[in-house]
Specification:
This protein is of the alpha/beta class and 303 residues long. 26% of the residues lie in helices and 22% in strands. It has a 6-stranded mixed beta sheet, with helices on one face. Strands 5-6-7-8-12-11 form a 6-stranded mixed beta sheet.
């Protein structure tokens, strides 16, 4: 009587080998998944990167030297770890010796009355920038009912928090910062913000949410934003999640229909405590004259 496959020693051996390979493959996939999760949770969120970008700004006065602007965004201080990350980010930024520093919102995630002072203390070194600094608030600073306490702590450092207000950059003549309030307030208004600013001024607009670029309605030389976290977790070329206000512009430099825009990936996190293929970012923007396409480099760091 012929034997069936179950009685064939070679078949059994091959089946066993196939089963072991399948188990090994499954174990490998599980292990890779655990390693990726560990990396995304413990390593990449604390692996600060330094991004340097040169931007040729329309209308930059002829003969004026380049201006180095340091940017920190989305600190999301809500723990000792996040405060330490903000402190290291500030140290990394100031090591680049920026002329001017801008802070583009979401200093805290929640419990601003608990974390605003620590967040401000962590970034205190930025006040050493020769031309000082300017700040705007983000949606989380408002959603946690912490806007006033956050603003008070940042201004304690000597950095004005602009809420639909302009400010002239000292010693730079006709260069102005337009600080537009977060769109989460329903009061973001670039037209109000630009009142009194000369028509021929170089206008640097700070607003937390980058998609505001499409309906600002005023002429600006450059918009600097955050909010998106770069998607925080990225598949090749795509953010996994982009919040409202950052659905179109996710990270890096854009030349929009009306003006140049830079969007920082920020320092902190929101929602799931992961970053994957999207490390936290300290930014130095070098502004210079002549209207042409800018170039940029991102230099990973481990501060």
């Amino acid at each position: 009587m012929p034997h069936g496959p179950s009685c064939d020693g070679k078949t059994l051996s091959r089946s066993g080998l196939t089963g072991r390979r399948a188990l090994a493959a499954a174990a490998g996939m599980a292990g890779a998944g655990l390693l990726s999760e560990a990396w995304a949770h413990w390593v990449e969120p604390n692996r600060l990167s330094l991004t340097r970008v040169r931007i040729r700004v329309p209308g930059w006065p002829a003969g004026r030297p380049p201006l180095r602007i340091g940017q920190l965004s989305d600190l999301h201080c809500n723990s000792g770890t996040s405060v330490d990350r903000a402190r290291r980010a500030a140290a990394m930024l100031m090591a680049q010796q920026p002329d001017l520093v801008v802070l583009t919102g979401d200093f805290v995630t929640s419990h601003g009355e608990q974390w605003a002072e620590a967040a401000a203390d962590a970034i205190a070194p930025v006040v050493a920038a020769p031309l000082g600094g300017f700040a705007v608030l983000g949606n989380h600073d408002y959603w946690t009912n912490s806007a006033d306490v956050v603003a008070r702590e940042v201004e304690r450092l000597g950095i004005p928090v602009l809420r639909n207000e302009p400010a002239r950059v000292r010693r730079l003549g006709n260069v102005w910062v337009l600080g537009v309030d977060s769109i989460s307030t329903g009061r973001a208004d670039a037209k109000v913000t630009s009142l009194g600013v000369p028509a021929d001024a170089v206008r640097l607009m700070l607003v937390h949410e980058p998609d505001f670029a499409d309906y600002a309605g005023v002429r600006v030389s450059l918009q600097i934003s955050g909010h998106s976290h770069g998607g925080q977790i990225r598949l090749p070329g795509l953010p996994v999640y982009s919040p409202a206000g950052a659905r179109k512009y996710h990270m890096g430099f854009y030349r929009t229909a009306t003006h140049p825009l830079f969007v920082s990936r920020g320092i902190g996190m929101i929602g799931v405590p992961f970053r994957f293929r999207c490390p936290p970012e300290v930014v130095v923007l070098t502004l210079e004259g002549a209207d042409s396409t800018p170039t940029g480099t991102a230099a990973p760091g481990a501060a």
